[in-house]
Amino acid sequence: MRKRWKWVVGVAVVLVVAALVAFPRSVEVEIAEVLVGPLEVTLDEEGETRVREPFVVSAPIAGRLERIELEAGDRVVAEETVIATLRPSAPVLLDARSREEARAGVEAAEAGVGRVRAERQRIASELAYARAEAMRYRRLADEGIVSQELLDQTELRVATQEEALQAAEYALRTVEGDLRMARARLLEAAPTREQGGAIAIRSPVDGVVLRRFQQSEAVVTAGTPLVEVGDTRDLEVVADYLSSDAVQMKPGYGALIARWGGEPLLARVRRIEPSGFTKISALGVEEQRVNVVLDFDESQRSSWERLGDGFRVEVRVVIWADDQVVVVPTGALFRSGEQWAVYRIEDGRARLRPVEIGVRSPERAQVLDGLEAGDRVVLYPGDQVTEGVRVHG
């Protein structure tokens, strides 16, 4: 009887071992489903906002600067708000050559103003013509005489001329400021100038004080920066990208501005600067970077107007997007030889499946071949996950 029990126990042990070999323990894994949905591929970098047209107000001549009372954030009005008061130093007598150079500077500045005014007038005339032409084409389009495409081209010409006119206005303000500075140099340099008169330096544009370079009373030389002013309602975003990423973008690409303190904002790439620069990364690696400039979407002005000059943001430029693609989490992908592969779950077992991948984002990848919507795959497969092993989630 005792021998019989020993045989029974021995057979039971053999059966248990055989069962463990034939039916190995199931491995617990994370499981994800292959879906059909939208996919965006973005290039992300940190950036900052900046005023599109900042103006640095400098001392036109050498003299004693009185204390600047304005502070960063104070509003200024063009040609009205006094930025600083400067008492000229005793004028230096000029020789004939220097006096002629000062006069030539005034004449050159006057010529520059005349040239820019003529250019502004030309653009204004072209804009008036374009608006009239657009109005005629609009009536003809309503009657079905001209195509919608021709009407769109005419209205695009109007918008382009309006932007050119605005740029000409900014250019005119700049050259008029140069002319005033040139005249001030000649006037203050003249030996007949009455001594001791204070000069009020006024803001060249409407906006706010961005930075104050000088505050206390001090003796300054000509050209010393005093205050930077600009219109914070006219902001842009600049982000420096790796040159290898910048070449994948084009002007007009859509973007998102995130992590600025509010909901993501829409933006669009306006310019990719043609010249790069070298920057040392946090790991001490030299990188070739390129500045990418973006414009905010005007429809969200009420949101982004809360930003100011030099605010940190995160820029996400969309270089590829589709609403209906087969996507798999990137955490399920791994390299198997020369190919990408996943472990697809079939009848409770992990099966190695080669896949062909298209575009990828940090979270998801486009599946071109090898998987279908509804398939279940193993996320982050470890060493215990092998071909044919039982798995459960």
Rough outline: elongated
Number of helical regions: 5
Number of strands: 23
CATH topology of the largest domain, what is it called? Elongation Factor Tu (Ef-tu), domain 3
Q: What is the CATH top level name of the largest domain?
A: Mainly Beta
Low-confidence stretches: 188-195
The CATH superfamily of the largest domain appears as Efflux pump adaptor protein, beta barrel domain
Q: Percent of residues in helical segments?
A: 25-40%
Question: What's the CATH architecture name of the largest domain?
Answer: Beta Barrel
Task: Quote the distance from N terminus to C terminus.
Answer: 47 Å
Q: Kindly estimate the percentage of residues that lie in beta strands according to DSSP.
A: 35-45%
Radius of gyration: 35 Å
Features:
393 residues, alpha+beta, conserved putative lor/sdh protein from methanococcus maripaludis s2 fold, 6-stranded antiparallel barrel, 4-stranded antiparallel β-sheet
